[in-house]
Structures are given as C-alpha cells and as structure tokens.
Amino acid sequence: MGESALIGYTRLDGSLLACGGVTSIILTLLAMSQVNLYYRDRQRELTQKEAEWLSIRKVKTYQLN
Description:
The protein is of the alpha+beta class. The chain has one domain. It has 1 helix and 2 strands. It has one helix at about 20-65; strands at about 5-10, 15-20. A two-stranded antiparallel sheet has the order 1-2. Strand 1 (about 5-10) and strand 2 form a beta hairpin. The longest helix has about 45 residues, at about 20-65. The termini are far apart. About 0% of the residues are buried.
C-alpha cells in the first residue's frame, strides 16, 4: 500500500488515524455513529434542562396565584 492510498481521519479527541481501503470506510462509519451518539446525548441533555426549566416556571406561577 503506497502513501497515495493512505487517507487520514481526525478523531474527536484530535488524534490522527491513517489507513486505506475498507478500513477507512469502517472508520468513517464508526466516526459518524460516534458523532450521532454525541449529538443525540446533547439533545437529550437540552430536553432535560428544558423540562426542569418549565417545571420551575410552573412552580413559580403556582406560587404567584
């Protein structure tokens, strides 16, 4: 495998992976699934924060009434 066949991938932690062919495809799919999991977790965190904020707001509204 020559240097022209090497493809570099930067992981989320900043380290560089180099490989070619099928391995690069597998690594690309792995990286994409990791990114999807990260964003899904972030969305879940935001949803929980929104729910907490709404419940706090409801309590304040009940206290005012």
